[in-house]
Write a structure and sequence with these properties.
Region (Disordered): 157-180
Oligomer: single chain
Strand content: under 5%
CATH class of the largest domain: Mainly Alpha
CATH superfamily of the largest domain: Uncharacterised protein YqeY/AIM41, N-terminal domain
Pfam family, one: YqeY
GO molecular function, one term: carbon-nitrogen ligase activity, with glutamine as amido-N-donor
Number of helices: 7
Structural class: mainly alpha
InterPro entries: Asn/Gln_tRNA_amidoTrase-B-like, GatB_Yqey_C_2, YqeY/Aim41, YqeY/Aim41_N
Number of domains: 2
Radius of gyration: 21 Å
Shape: globular
Helix content: 55-70%
CATH topology of the largest domain: Hypothetical Protein Yqey, Chain: A, domain1
Largest sheet: none
Protein name: GatB/YqeY domain-containing protein
């Protein structure tokens, strides 16, 4: 089932229910999808794809998480709770997210598979991750993980400390782990 259909179905159910926060959040999502569809059609497209909807939902979650933190810092706990509730509702429509050690392992595997060695390979690694795991991880966080892995790798240290084998040929650095 397409994301937009799932969201439309949830909106119809929310219209019958009594959860006003759920109803307004789902309407907000529908409006954002409609806006993106119209923009895509204005540029000759057919509308937004599911992958674009997932990206949009991820952005909406990040925005609400940031807002919730800011409201908490300002002592406006009721607004922070509302942002957290909206974030939970939006997350229902996202694929199950890969996080923590699993994300670290997938990033390390991708770095190893691509034989990436330095920070210049971040783009290539991120492109591969987005192709392999569309919508399944927070790519902002994944980018930080990849950057750390490649930074360690570019310093001559083994990637093994981050869960991946060092696949570089011997002699890429001196014995102290520093590049000449």
């Amino acid at each position: 089932m397409l994301k937009r259909d799932t969201i439309s179905s949830a909106l119809k159910q929310a219209l019958v229910g009594t959860d006003k926060c759920r109803l307004t959040t789902l309407r907000l999502i529908q409006a954002a999808i409609r806006d993106r569809d119209e923009a895509a059609k204005a540029h000759g497209g057919d509308g937004v794809a599911d992958s674009d909807i997932v990206e949009m939902l991820q952005t909406m979650v990040r925005q609400r998480d940031v807002s919730a933190r800011e409201f908490e810092e300002m002592g406006q706990l009721d607004l922070a709770e509302q942002e957290k509730r909206e974030s939970q509702i939006i997350r229902e429509f996202l694929p199950r997210q890969v996080e923590g050690d699993a994300m670290q392992a997938l990033c390390a595997e991708t770095v190893t598979d691509l034989d990436a060695h330095g920070l210049r390979d971040i783009g290539r690694c991120m492109s591969a991750l987005k192709t392999r795991y569309p919508g399944q991880m927070d790519f902002v966080k994944a980018s930080c993980v990849v950057r750390d892995l490649l930074r360690v790798g570019s310093n001559g240290s083994a990637l093994a400390s981050n869960g991946a084998a060092d696949t570089r040929p011997a002699g890429d650095g001196d014995e102290s782990g520093k590049l000449s």
